[in-house]
Specification:
The chain has about 375 residues and is of the alpha/beta class. The chain folds into two domains: about 55-270, Queuine tRNA-ribosyltransferase-like (TIM Barrel); about 280-370, no CATH class. It contains 15 helices and 16 strands. The strands form four sheets. Strands 4-5-6-10-11-12-13-14 form an eight-stranded parallel beta barrel, surrounded by four helices. Strands 1-2-3 form a three-stranded antiparallel beta sheet. A hairpin with a 6-residue loop joins strand 8 and strand 9. The relative contact order is 0.13.
């Protein structure tokens, strides 16, 4: 259940009650594709850096270790030792990213595994069954993430099919939740809005799926090649047509600036591989913008990554030491930078929530955007 605590223009501050705890929104979900954050970050670490929601990947967990094995081990929460909410994506994005290895039909998608080439079929029912085996808090509907740009005719056909798939997902999810031996009988379902960069198709699709009374709604198919201006225009167009009493999730976005802009347009949930991926390569976020610890000027820099930051890396180590670890190819370098970046994102979301609560979000947003742009 989503409770709107405060609204200022389009900006929303809420809390979302789930079977695995209450999520304070706006929130950033930390991406652990295979049930772990890349960079040797554990579920215990996630608690220390104030992660509220962990996100895992349906397609990848289906391939290994296999969703049936995860189910046998008591579900993903028990398997990875995490008692807070988990969102699993549906595998739909893999339809997009594995475009050379798949065939889309009405019944679903035929894949070749990126690991061993084995033939795989995934449709709405299969995606729901896999996510039910994982026992995640929130399951995402199976959709097609449309390449950008795509012809209007293709987008219209794809969106209509995504709607039919969503109806099938809902029926299957209801069936699975009613079974006696289901891992999580209160599993929630979020639908996904698609439509490429066509505002009118997006709006019509938003109206259609809003009638289905789902637990939440996502805006998918963005951050896949369109400009930031196009993305913001789509968010502006779509958000007013999604239910205002349900959480709104912008999938796969993004940079700290993207998040601030999307919060100001009414978005509640975010996820992105960016902070962890950047961290693994020594690119770290600070209050003054992003820096690359590989640069020679940090070789004798005795300051923390970000002055005043309370993450485990900044409290104990210097830029010089972490740079040395990267040069020496020590795994600890990646771990410390990933921890820092995820803490930075989680802490930023706390600051955003505080700013909305305190009626100073616009000032906070402008101050941050100015600091980051002047140092980029």
């Amino acid at each position: 259940m989503y409770k709107l605590l405060k609204k200022s223009g389009k900006i929303r501050r809420g809390e979302f009650t789930t079977p695995h705890g209450v999520i304070q929104t706006p929130v950033f979900m930390n991406v652990g594709t295979l049930g772990a954050i890349k960079g040797a970050v554990s579920s215990m670490d996630l608690k220390e850096i104030n992660c509220q929601v962990e996100l895992s990947n349906t397609y990848h967990l289906h391939l290994r270790p296999g969703d049936k094995i995860v189910r046998q081990m008591g579900g993903l929460h028990k398997f990875m030792n995490w008692d807070r909410p988990i969102l699993t994506d549906s595998g739909g994005f893999q339809v997009f990213s594995l475009s050379q290895m798949r065939k889309i039909k009405e019944e679903g998608v035929y894949f070749s595994s990126h690991i061993d080439g084995k033939k795989i079929f995934m449709g709405p029912e299969e995606s729901m069954q896999i996510q039910s085996n994982l026992g995640s808090t929130i399951a995402m509907a199976f959709d097609e993430c449309i390449p950008n740009p795509s012809s209007r005719e293709y987008v219209e056909q794809s969106v209509e099919r995504t709607t039919r798939w969503l109806e099938r997902c809902k029926i299957e999810m209801d069936r699975l939740n009613s079974l006696e031996d289901t891992v999580n009988k209160k599993q929630m379902l979020f639908g996904i809005n698609q439509g490429g960069t066509y505002d009118d198709i997006r709006i019509e699709h938003a109206k259609t799926i809003s009638k289905m009374n789902l637990d939440g709604y996502a805006i998918g198919g963005l951050a896949v090649g369109e400009t930031h201006e196009e993305m913001y225009r789509i968010i502006d167009s779509v958000v007013p047509y999604l239910p205002q009493n349900k959480p709104i999730y912008l999938m796969g976005v993004g940079t700290p600036s993207n998040i601030l802009e999307a919060v100001s347009r009414g978005v509640d949930f975010f996820d992105c591989v960016l902070p962890a991926r950047n961290g693994r390569h020594g690119h770290v976020f600070t209050k003054d913008g992003k820096i690359n610890l590989m640069n020679a000027k940090y070789e004798t820099d005795g300051s923390p990554i970000d002055e005043g930051c309370q993450c485990p890396a900044c409290k104990h180590y210097t830029r010089a030491y972490i740079r040395h670890l990267f040069k020496a190819k020590e795994m600890l370098a990646m771990r410390l930078c990933v921890l820092h970046n995820l803490y930075f994102y989680n802490n930023m979301m706390q600051e955003i929530r505080d700013a909305i609560d305190g009626d100073y979000f616009d000032d906070y947003k402008n101050e941050k955007l100015n600091a980051w742009s002047s140092n980029s």
